[in-house]
Design goal:
The chain is an alpha/beta fold. It has 19 helices and 30 strands. The protein has an 8-stranded mixed beta sheet with strand order 12-11-8-6-7-14-15-23, sandwiched between helices. A 7-stranded mixed beta sheet has the order 5-4-17-16-18-19-20, with helices on both faces. The two termini are 30 Å apart. Bound molecules: 5'-O-[(S)-ethoxy(hydroxy)phosphoryl]adenosine. 5'-O-[(S)-ethoxy(hydroxy)phosphoryl]adenosine (WTA) binds next to helix 11, strand 20, strand 24 and strand 25.
């Protein structure tokens, strides 16, 4: 396996031994209605036509001023797209649709409790609410173009309203997944220098009304201690006018939006004409060191790319009802719940809660109620729905024409259930491979043009030209049957611009390894390294194996092993911590946490629990280890490095290989006995 020298255990090493599968063709009915049916699109977006080909996507948007330079490479590898262009994302997602579609639903909000009714926010209502809130942000919170603001919001309609209000002003939003802890939120407040936090008092998750405001208090306290005071906390209430959180409102700092917004009744805010390359938002993602990276996305390039891929890969038409079940706290939600669909005037569905609450039929009832015909989710959700309700979809009267899977490799078995049961054998499936950094899709079939193949993402989407390198930098050609590091040869408009405040880390992480000449201003010398291992089949389809670095994909969410390890080290008794990925039937991967204690401390259930709790507090429940194994000693090389590869093999019940050269080979059998019980 490629990249073995860099890391000792990785997702990609928990090898997936899937057979090559046969092709599935889209139906003639699907092709007849599709937005993109012309196979020549691949030619139009070939490297010969790069970068001007992307004008086709940019032309889906309304510009105040056209650009003079399509791609500016002078600050390589920080590419600038559509330079000279002026645009506003909020205008493109709302205002320009009003004339013809004022009364069309922009957002269908589905509350988790079954006794609460659906809310349907029309484009007109979205316009009114975004304008009023933008006025509040400008006049009450004092925000202006270029300022950063942190959002820590759950899946409620006020989240996209907040994002679009920021975008209207050119304010850079940084939305933190609501399931993350106050600590994780504080780190992102500090890194982005946000002095305003926008949050919610409470939200529903799996039948419980969670108190969310308390996370804001923790976040403010910790951010303040780390040198970034929060001046104002704006709290949207889940039930306006009703207390849903036990946390107190801090005088002079905390305000209910529902109270303040009355002062802005009827306010209209002129969208700020932003430079195309101005940042639209930050999205933090786990990296190979403990510190999350603030991926900075642009306004014009990003919006063009998500609009184009929403139209041609998601095949969304204005009359469709489109439901992406991701969380807006992640990139999928930003690109394919909010910005992409709204830019092309779709009706987008947002569901507050858990897909299996209160039972395995919930998702299909929502689809039936709203007439959803395009459905988008992740393998982890598909596995869960298949496990608890394999025959459930057939009981409901909905008809999907198109379905997406995203976030992790999907097993062909699971793909086939998705196709047969959820898609009723009719819906096409796109397996979209991409990343927080990439803004939009990298590999996927084009639904009416390239046939599907279970377990393979497919070829690069138009304008994306992947290439696989081995560790020595040689190209692994298609059909080589070998995995390597998948890179993208060319820049594209959706790509992030840099890591917020850390250009060096941006260059080092994504470009340094395969850069052909660090002084070059030619994009051909700067392949983008994704950090995933992949194989390319003879037909040019890419199969993604998983991360080569120390990042674990749990339920489709990227978690840094270093982040989890440093959370464990917060506990006094802990001397060393090592996290390894373990294969899991539903979640895909789970972290297993190995701990060695400082001298004089004894292992106990309570201590293991305390360590596990520390991970939840520091990062969020999502990072909770499957198991905390307190071991007598870590297996180590003679130079003292922890052998994660050995721990990974033990956790996955695989062969530990030759351990005789370790400094302490005996400990391996002890740990094995403990884990295998
Ligand atoms: C993985 C989510 C296989 C991959 C959009 C990538 C996938 C990481 C797929 C990015 C897919 C995403 N097949 N693996 N279709 N989609 N991945 O940043 O390892 O949360 O690098 O972005 O998820 O995760 P992120």
């Amino acid at each position: 396996m490629a990249a073995k020298e860099i890391v000792e255990t990785s997702e990609a090493q928990i090898a997936v031994h899937w057979q090559e599968e046969g092709y599935y063709q889209p139906s003639p009915q699907f092709i007849a209605q599709a937005n993109m049916t012309d196979g020549a699109v691949y030619e139009r977006f070939s490297l010969e036509n790069f970068p001007n080909c992307f004008k086709e996507y940019a032309d889906l948007l309304d510009w105040y001023a056209y650009w003079h330079t399509t791609l500016d490479t002078s600050d390589a590898p920080c590419w600038k797209w559509f330079v000279g262009g002026r645009i506003n994302a909020s205008y493109n997602c709302i205002d320009r649709h009003l004339e013809k579609n004022r009364n069309k639903t922009a957002i269908h909000f589905v509350p988790e409790p079954v006794n609460e009714s659906y809310q349907h926010v029309t484009y007109q209502e979205l316009y009114v609410r975004v304008n009023e809130f933008a006025a509040l942000l400008r006049d009450f919170a004092g925000l202006k173009a270029g300022d950063r603001v942190t959002l820590h919001m759950p899946m409620i309609a006020e989240l996209p309203i907040t994002m679009l209000a920021c975008a209207r002003l050119g304010v850079v939003h940084s939305q933190v997944f609501a399931g993350f802890s106050g600590r994780a939120c504080a780190d992102r407040i500090v890194d982005s220098n946000s002095r305003i936090l926008i949050t919610t008092d409470a939200y529903y998750r799996n039948g419980t009304l969670l108190d969310h405001k308390q996370n804001a208090d923790t976040a403010c306290e910790l951010a303040g201690a780390d040198g970034q005071p929060v001046d104002k906390v704006l709290v949207w209430q889940r039930y306006p006018g009703k207390a849903s959180s036990a946390a107190l409102m801090k005088e002079g700092r905390d305000y209910f939006v529902n109270d303040l917004i009355h002062d802005y009744y009827g306010a209209r805010v002129e969208p700020v004409k932003m430079p195309a390359e101005a940042p639209l938002f930050l999205m933090y993602t786990s990296g190979t060191t403990g510190k999350p990276k603030g991926c900075q996305h642009s306004t014009g390039g990003y919006l063009a790319y998500v609009a184009g891929t929403s139209k041609y890969v998601q095949d969304i038409h204005p009359e469709d009802v489109y439901w992406c079940m991701a969380d807006i706290g992640w990139i999928t939600g930003h690109s394919y719940i909010v910005y992409g669909p709204l830019a092309i005037c779709a009706s987008t569905v947002m569901y507050e809660g858990v897909p299996t609450f209160p039972d395995a039929g919930r998702a299909w009832r929502i689809a039936q109620d709203l007439g959803v015909n395009i459905f988008h989710t992740a393998p982890t959700a598909i596995r869960a729905l298949r496990k608890i309700g394999p025959d459930e979809p057939a009981k409901y009267d909905y008809q999907f024409k198109h379905m997406t899977t995203v976030g992790e490799p999907i097993e062909p078995e699971v793909w086939k259930w998705y196709h047969q049961m959820v898609g009723k054998g009719e819906a096409i499936i796109v397996d979209t491979w991409w990343q927080t950094e990439t803004g939009g899709f990298l590999c996927s079939t084009l639904p009416a043009i390239t046939p599907m193949k279970p377990g393979s993402a497919g070829p690069g989407v138009p304008g994306i030209h992947p290439i696989i390198y081995d560790d020595e930098g040689h190209v692994l050609p298609k059909g080589a049957g070998k995995a390597g590091n998948i890179c993208i040869q060319n820049p594209w408009p959706g790509a992030f611009q840099t890591i917020w405040g850390d250009r060096q880390r941006f260059v080092d992480t994504y470009y340094a390894r395969y850069c052909k000449n660090p002084d070059s201003k030619d994009w051909r010398d700067w392949p983008y390294m994704t950090g995933d291992a992949a194989v390319e089949a003879q037909d040019g389809y890419f199969r993604i194996l998983g991360r080569i670095d120390d990042v674990i994909n749990v339920s489709g969410h990227r978690l840094g092993t270093k982040e989890i390890e440093s959370a464990a080290l917060v506990v006094d008794e802990v001397a060393e911590a090592a996290v390894v990925p373990v294969a899991h039937e539903i979640k895909g991967r789970e972290p297993d946490l190995y701990i060695a204690l400082k001298p004089g401390f004894e292992a106990s259930e309570e201590l293991a629990q305390k360590i596990s709790d520390a991970v939840s507090t520091e990062i969020g429940k999502i990072a909770k280890p499957r198991k905390v194994w307190i071991v007598p000693d870590m297996p180590k090389t003679r130079s003292g490095k922890i052998m994660r590869r050995v721990l990974g093999a033990i956790s996955n019940r695989a062969d530990v290989g030759d351990v005789t050269t370790l400094a302490n080979p005996d400990v391996v059998d002890l740990i094995k006995a403990m884990v295998e019980g």
